[in-house]
Amino acid sequence: MVSELQIVALVEQVEHKIGLLKDAYNDAKRRIEQLELENSSLRESVKEQQSLVKQLQKKQGNSEKDVPKSKDFSKIVKDNLSETDTNAELKQQLDEYIRDLERCIAHLSSLS
């Protein structure tokens, strides 16, 4: 037969295990709450990043529309040249156009 002391000891062991399970449950519950808050924060951050990407894509699209096509550059150069321009002046203008192109490229690169 099982003595009364053995039954009391078993009940105390069960109560102790129940206490441990309650603590583990409460810890897990707190961790879930923390993770839900972090998840919410991260979702908000993702939305902000997606919005920023869309804005940058729009700016990039608008910038690309503003840049004339390469065949238009020859027209620009041709229209801006007078017949009295010297080679030095032509070289200076071309250098200026190249610097403008480099600035445009740098600007477009910074958008992406």
Automatic annotation (TrEMBL):
Highest taxon of source: Bacteria
Ranges of compositional bias, category Low complexity: 48-60
Region (Disordered): 42-74
Basic and acidic residues compositional bias, start-end: 61-74
Protein name: Uncharacterized protein
Organism: Spirosoma soli
